[in-house]
Amino acid sequence: MRDLILQCAGVAGIAVALIHGVLGETKVFARATIQPESLRTLIRLVWQAGTVAWIGGGVLLIAAPSMGSESARHWIVATIVAVYAFAAAANAWWSRGRGFGWKALGAVVVLAVAGY
Length: 116
Known about the structure:
single chain
């Protein structure tokens, strides 16, 4: 059962990452005025680097049960929980507790810890 929970955390992590990427492109950068243009490109790439990293974390959470190593499972969960928990805390601080981003990120953390 804990393997399934950990894999659900991975799927949720990937979903959150994809939503993050899409909202960044459609809501944030569609309205943002950033000059010079090269700086705008850099900020977009850094934004999407987070998206890619979260997708990678989700993939690792999905794969962790099949690795057959408790040590690998431990370090994957610990690392991904730290990454997502930081993102959740930053999002909660930035949004002053409103919105769903920090809650979705927090749900991934809770599922990953439960699947540990």
